[in-house]
Amino acid sequence: MSSFLTYLISGLSLGSIYAIIALGYTMVYGIAKMLNFAHGDFIMVGCYIIFTVSGALSGNSIVGIIVAIVLCTLLGITTEFVAYRPLRGAASPLAVLITAIGVSYFLENLALLIFGADIKSFTSVIKWEGLTFADGNLRIQGVTIVTIVVSLVVLLVLQLFIKKTKQGQAMLAVAEDKGAATLMGINVNNTIMLTFAIGSALAAIAGALLCSAYPSLSPYTGAMPGIKAFVAAVLGGIGSIPGAMIGGLLLGIVEILSKTYISSQLSDAIVFGILVVVLLVKPTGILGKKIQEKV
Amino acid sequence: MNKTKDNLITYGIVIVAYIILQTLAVTGILSSHMKGLLVPMTYYAVIAVALNLCVGILGELSIGHCGFMCIGAFTSAFFSKLTEASIPAAPRFILAFIIGIAFAALFGFLIGIPVLRLKGDYLAIVTLAFGEIIKNVINAFYIGVDKNGVHFSLKNAMELNMEPDGQLIVNGAMGITGTPHNSSFTVGIIVLLLSLFVVLNLINSRDGRAIMAVRDNYIAAEATGINVTGYKMMAFVISAAIAGAAGVLFSHNITTLTASSQYFGFNASIMILVYVVLGGIGNIRGSVIAACVLYLLPELLRGLNTYRMLIYSIVLIVMMIYTWSPKVLEWRKRTLGKINLPWKKANI
Amino acid sequence: MALLEVNNLCISFGGLRAVDDFNLTIEKGQLYGLIGPNGAGKTTVFNLLTGVYKPNEGRIKLDGNDITRKSTTEINHAGIARTFQNIRLFKNMSVIDNVKVGLTERFKYSALEGILHLGNYRKVEKEMDFEAEKLLKVFDLDKEKDILASNLPYGKQRKLEIARAMATNPKLLLLDEPAAGMNPNETKELMDTIALVRKEFDMTILLIEHDMKLVSGICEKLTVLNFGRVLCQGETKEVLSDPEVIKAYLGE
Fold first, then answer.
1. Does residue C7 sit at the B interface (CB-CB below 8 Å)?
2. Pick from B201, B345, B206, B210: nearest CA to B286
């Protein structure tokens, strides 16, 4: 029983990381209406920055995290400005998706050039050992607790930001109708840029947590978690912030439990299988809204 | 009949390239390393043609096409290993093609049922999901044959409970070892020409026009009496089948066939997409040329290898913005006027 | 028997009754106008007739066959073709190929013949080219047949959309604001085109229009929609002089 609990908690922890990444996805998708395929690679960039800065400062990871958040935010804004903004309003929706794939490819190969293909071992940014329950039978690692707490805090802050601030309301308006939002005096470009900034900052935080829990870093570290987080965002309902949270947690738990009890080889197949089923049965996800094309 | 002439040029380019390269290979001018690149070059060109049918003609982005290649590779290799002793090489290889193509088409159909109900980004990400599922599931397969028949397991080779004389054919993540090396440059070129023949002819037929109509405006296509789902499926299945043929070439050219990410993961699929985009979306000849050049170039210029992916990614981004950005298009209209650039015809 | 018979058609979106108790009878050969202020539900009626939306209640009969709740494709096969308010051409295809898409269901050969370019392929393609060029000539588009549809000037794009619809050999043609965005000259030309289509093909037409001049000039009968309901129905002259209609259009 306690081993099941351990797995469940480790699923929650992984799920919390997915949730933070999924929040970035869901905001960008909901507001800019584009799938930022490179989002997962922002995580990888964040990890390398923390790795480098902490290394240079002999293990001071707080500074590393702050630098990573700042630089990732800048990266997000730059990417949006250089690669995605020119394609807003393009006749084909595939154009921006292929561009995003290009950005993802670019970041991975840039990291490959700078840091090499070998896997770096990442020192956890969380030094706390964690808690022990039931006479040592159930141990919860520090990184697990911190991850879950951080994801809850992020969720709360984001909800408050969207509900209570002018910028948050502007985001909702842009998500609803770009044209109408422009007429209401909202600067659509700035709003989308802010969305990317927030999403990318979250990617840096997710990176710190991901590499603390799974301490191996390579140029491809972000790709798979990024795609799975997208699955989580779809599962929860794209555009919905609580949905991203629920989707992330569910996905993390399913992944860990299927790895443990079914087959480690097949766990990814199960995760992607969920995506397929959700999109067929309820394409709007658990908390999503329906959209129909106007004829 | 301008289109026919255009198609003949495409076949001509492939045949001329074949004659030149084959002459170089036979006369010993090509190093053995270079000769080893010729077959992969053909199967990458074949799968690029397949993907362009899906992306350029059908207008749906697939980032899981290597999954169909994987199915073609494994089913045909399984067949060839199983019958290696009982059927002579030539008919066996032809049967292997039929089997690889048929299975890839079958999976194209089965996967197409859910996938083609989706659109745009969702469709793309689900093709990626299926590509990964195929790879992961094949990695978990253990299949052996003994005198009692075929044994199958998802756990490990011991679970097969085979007689001692049994032959293990698919060994989980270790894949299939020792598939006969039947692929050759000549066979590769024949498969490429056949794929081109199918796709180019399709484009110039009523079915092809219906498929492109669905791509350009599915609402108008429905109102014009086009069976949207049917034509989407047709294009997707043909595309998967051709990718399967590329897989057969692949598996009969390699000693150990594994469902690894390097060959069949989404990054491999994206590499094919790079060929298609840089060759011109919707431009079938462009895909063939891009696949061949982009595959050979880094092998020829070793120094370029370090930077090639970086360069490809930048070219990909610049190309998309140049072709699709509304502002850039406006600027091009103003400055370039009515000059008819070849990529003006490129279409998604 | 009437060509089109619509009884008690209703559809709601959320709480809004977009079309309520809509009735319409069109006889063969008529040119019928559907008018009304913005947001009255005109395009929604078109979308109901062509199966884009499925009605909550009501029946649609074409030539005696019930086509209620059929798919858009099936309804086209049954004999209704349409154009769109915001032009929807196959932009990356040539002008003639746009029309040939419309011919897809009328001129057939198997997929295998298409892929191999064997069997009936050449013969049927020739017939399709002949038919398509004949249609393009009617719409004065034959000189532009090989250019991309998106490179046509606006007025000609509208014409091509009608030509494509005609290629499916419909019994009833629906035109959704064909004159939208046209200058007076183009509108005049369009009226001639519509008159030509009627004469040449003996076509029954239902059109949505804002341009009163166009409506009063060519339509024989009118239905006026307001807030999803039929405000008035009948001969063009009577309808246009109805005080209710004037009120809905000009306000009080």
1. no
2. B345
In angstroms, what CA-CA distances link B281 with A276, B175, B326?
27, 34, 18
Yes or no, beta carbons of C115 and B198 under 8 Å apart: yes
Tell me: the pLDDT tens digits for C93-137?
999 999 999 999 999 999 999 999 999 999 999 999 999 999 999
Cβ-contact A162, A153 below 8 angstroms: no
What residue ranges of chain A have pLDDT lower than 70?
A: 1-2, 59, 134, 289-295
Of C170, C147, C168, which is closest to residue C157 (Cα–Cα)?
A: C147
Of C73, C148, C165, nearest to B226 by CB-CB distance is C73
Cβ–Cβ below 8 Å for B225 and C108: no
How do residues B217-270 score in pLDDT, each as one tens digit?
999 999 999 999 999 999 999 999 999 999 999 999 999 999 998 899 888 998
Half-sphere exposure of B253 (CA within 13 A, CB side): 23
Q: What is the pLDDT of residues C12-34, one digit of tens each?
A: 988 888 999 999 999 999 999 99
Q: What residue of A is the nearest CA neighbor of C47?
A: A295
Which residues of chain A are within 8 Å of residue B325 when distances are taken between CB atoms? 86-87, 90
Angle, vertex CA A165, rays to CA A164 and CA A171, nearest 5: 110
Q: Are the beta carbons of A87 and B63 separated by less than 8 Å? A: no
Please report, for residues A76, B37, B270, B318, B346, the alpha-carbon distance to residue A95 in angstroms, rounded to integers and kept in the order given: 19, 32, 14, 11, 12
Q: How far apart are CA C204 and CA A194, in angstroms?
A: 54
Beta strands in chain B (DSSP E): 142-146, 149-153, 167-171, 176-177, 256-257
Closest residue to B321, CB basis, from A87, A94, A283: A87
- Distance CA(A31)–CA(A195), nearest Å, equals 8
Query: Which three-class secondary structure state does DSSP give residue C8?
Result: strand
Determine the 3-state secondary structure of B170 from DSSP.
strand
CATH entry 3.90.1150.10 includes domain C1-79+170-252? no
pLDDT digits over A49-87, tens only? 999 998 888 767 888 999 999 999 999 999 999 999 999
Q: With beta carbons under 8 A apart, name residues in chain C contacting B213.
A: 90, 93, 98, 101
B53 DSSP 8-state letter:
I
Q: Å from B131 to nearest chain C CA? A: 27
| Side-chain half-sphere exposure of A88, counting CA atoms within 13 A | 14
Of B156-160, B272-276, C44-48, C98-102, which range is least confident? B156-160
Structural domain spans, chain C:
1-79+170-252, 91-168
Chains that touch B (3 or more CB pairs under 8 A): A, C
> Which residue of chain B has the CA closest to C80?
B223
In 3-state terms, what secondary structure has residue A154? helix
Can you spell out the DSSP letters for C187-226?
HHHHHHHHHHHHHHH--EEEEE-S-HHHHHHH-SEEEEEE
This prediction has a pTM of 0.91
